[in-house]
Amino acid sequence: MPQKTVVIGSSSGLHARPAKLFVQAAARQPVPVTISVPGRKPAPAKSMLAVLALGATHGTEVTLEAEGPGAEEALTALAALLARDLDAEEPADA
Amino acid sequence: MSGTARGLGVSPGRAAGRAYRMARPPALPPPAPVADAAAEIAAAGEALRSVAEHLERHAAKAADPEARAILEAQSMIAADPMLLESVEEGVAAGLGAAHAIDAGCARHREALLEAGGYFADRAGDLDDIRDRAVAAVLGLSMPGVPDPGHPYVLIADDLAPADTAGLDTATVLALVTLRGGPTSHTAILARALGLPAVVACHGAAAVEDGTWVAVDGDTGELVIGVAEDEAARVQHEAAEARERAAASTGPGATADGHPVPLLLNIGSAKDLRPGAEGVGLFRTEFLYLDRAGAPTFEEQVEAYTAVLRALPGRRVVVRTLDAGSDKPLPFLGLPEEENPALGLRGLRTARSHPEVLDTQLRAIAEAHRACEADTWVMAPMVSTVTEAAAFAARARAHGLPKAGVMIEVPAAALHADRLLREVDFLSIGTNDLGQYTFATDRQHGDLADLLDPWQPALLHLVHLCGEAGRAAGKPVGVCGEAAADPLLAPVLVGLGMTSLSMSAPSVPAVRAALSTRTLASCAEQAHLALTAPGPTAAREAVTTSTR
Hints:
The structure holds two protein chains of two kinds. By secondary structure, chain A is α+β, with helices and mostly antiparallel strands. Chain A is about 35% helix and about 20% strand. Chain A is built from three helices and four strands, in the order E-H-E-E-H-E-H. Chain A has helices spanning about 15-30, 50-55, 70-85; strands at about 5, 35, 45, 60-65. Chain A has a four-stranded antiparallel sheet, covered by helices on one side. By secondary structure, chain B is of the alpha/beta class. Chain B folds into three domains: about 5-25 and about 145-245, 3-Layer(bba) Sandwich (Glucose Oxidase, domain 1); about 35-140, PtsI, HPr-binding domain (Enzyme I, Chain A, domain 2, Orthogonal Bundle); about 260-545, TIM Barrel. Chain B contains 21 helices and 16 strands. An eight-stranded mixed sheet of chain B has the order 1-8-7-3-4-5-6-2. In chain B, strands 9-10-11-12-13-14-15-16 form an eight-stranded parallel barrel, surrounded by six helices. The two termini of chain B are about 30 Å apart. In chain B, about 50% of the residues are buried. The interface of A and B includes residues 12, 15, 53 and 59 of A.
């Protein structure tokens, strides 16, 4: 199954605004995507609760997995999002 | 009804207006057999959707981007397909909609608590979602912050951070809680916002929504059923008092010109204010929270420099890491403790992790060399002279000119004179000193009276430290919440405190209070408070002598 490993770039971790942006982006993908941290079973990336329960902080390595048409593109887009420091970017609507 | 209720005044000032209550969390009905599982699932799903929509609307209105992000995340939790799935499983197992929501939220709550740190803090969001969704299913009034559409006095059982994240502070005139103590979230928030607040006011339970009340955050008095014109008069006087306080500037001093530096308690450079005399407590925890490893030397230097550079020639007291099993940091790998307040915290973590303290001291020293600030360092949670001496030696070895310790443990206060032979200054953390002196958990709402900073036994310990400082000719300050109380501040000066440190909004009122009293009258008031039979009598004696 296509997968991608990426290190969380947001300074506050996968939490609050970064988590929101990620979960929203995951829900928009044409294929179901899972996210996991080492040693834990994969969880649906479009679930806020599952994403928060990963406890992924700045520097945590997470693995994204997806299958089906568009899976590669979905993984590339989501991995790029996670690698950015979303805390440092101003909200577009503020 | 009308009359007067009494509580503990924890944030000074007066306010009057109509009171509204934050509704209590709904109670679950007795479990009943489920007749129509599909209907229960539909009802639960509808309730969760309405909660998600409510939170989303609330998020759109939030002015603060951080508060908005939290509310948006919370809305997404309410709408989370996994939560609905858990609720459906509950119904399948025979639970009604309300019980299934309760069980589903509890399950995910556990998962967040396990994730720890920041993530565990979101467990409170699930409680809020549960309360709202259960209320929706049962057709009860929605718990949460009231929204009467005009300024009001907020009455609540107690206020948790989650309750106040969405609080529109522009429309809240004052906070009154039935429970809570002087160091509760309500008290700290109110002081940070400059709102009058009374906690542990059981009589507030009788106030019905829309009743006109007057709140006095100095005396802890809640007058229920005031006339509208009286309320307007109180508001007018309060506005005048605020203007007067805001107009006062310059360094803190008594009426006869005895200087008492009024310093700030800060968590980062963000909390600094122009015109600050200095920093009396720079908490460094924020650098360490929510991360797998310790912050690097370079990161620390940068954060300390940001503060030190802003205050050339002024005092900045940096407190070394105050973590422990009560505020766990994953990289310290501390064991879970039965009684974290009495366990491995503060300087005690250096027993097993001296390298963390050394890196921090080295980083503070590096920042100090690059800036012109008068840098002091102090260690939290020191109990013995040996610990104090070891810390001072370590700090000096790193080239830091001034090393001190916090007084939070009665053992340290009792030996203040011996400590001052080893260190350059003392800083009293009245919140923890109260907790340890009175054997009372800081979070224990029902025992708030024991945590009252006006307790004469606590003031006695402060006095011991003040006397020791005077004899040694070394500074002794207070950096706990007590210093922010304009009535208590002069008492602390009378007990020998040479500086007071507080959050920025508290400074004007304390400055104004000190400027009306001579050092001799501070000493008289200190004597009145020390010899009073209890905190209420102490407050009354000092209030009477001020008038």
